[in-house]
Amino acid sequence: MRSTAEIEVTPDGFSVLHRGKEVANVSWSSVKEIFAFKLDLGTYDTIRIGLRVADDGTYYDVDEDWLGYRALVAELERRFEIGDDWWSEVAFPAFATNRVTLWGQPGE
Fold first, then answer.
1. For residues 40 and 44, what is the distance between their CA atoms, to the nearest angstrom?
2. Global pTM value
3. pLDDT at 95
4. How is the beta sheet containing 45-52 ordered, strand by strand?
5. Contact 84, 74 (CB under 8 A)
6. How far does Cα 12 stand from its chain's mean position?
7. N or C: the chain end with fewer CB closer than 10 Å?
8. What is the distance between the alpha carbons of residues 37 and 51, in angstroms, rounded to a whole number?
9. Could you tell me which of 106, 54, 103 has the C-alpha nearest to residue 75?
10. Neighbours of 57 (CB within 10 A)
11. Which has the closest alpha carbon to 39: 49, 52, 29?
């Protein structure tokens, strides 16, 4: 089943839309950490990007199956000077979380 979530990248950050309604909005200036991890869904994994926006650990995450994911990843790599070698570190081995900080300092 196709996801109904969509990521919209803007000059100031990005929004997550669900069925056309905005459910989250993140400004680039609020990002404290960017991390990638894998979520085990039983028969397959999905890679997600998390953006921590507060010292209390609050974060938003986006799924690789969402429309606009690739545009967001490209913008994060450009804007935060993240190398493109992180994917294999997260993808392998299968069915493990493999959380990796891509930018910033890990939260408590």
1. 6
2. 0.92
3. 85
4. 59-63, 45-52, 33-40, 100-104
5. no
6. 16
7. N
8. 11
9. 103
10. 11
11. 49
20-35 pLDDT, tens digit each: 999 999 999 999 999 9
| Six token digits for residue 102 | 């891509």
The secondary structure of the chain as a DSSP string is ----EEEEEETTEEEEEETTEEEEEEEGGG--EEEEEEEE-SS-EEEEEEEE-STT--EEEEETTSBTHHHHHHHHHHHTT--S-HHHHHHSSTTS---EEEEE----
Q: Which residues pair with 77 in a beta bridge?
A: none
Cα 73 to Cα 40: distance, rounded to the nearest angstrom:
21
**Residue 97: what residue type?**
T
Residue corresponding to tokens 């994994």: 45
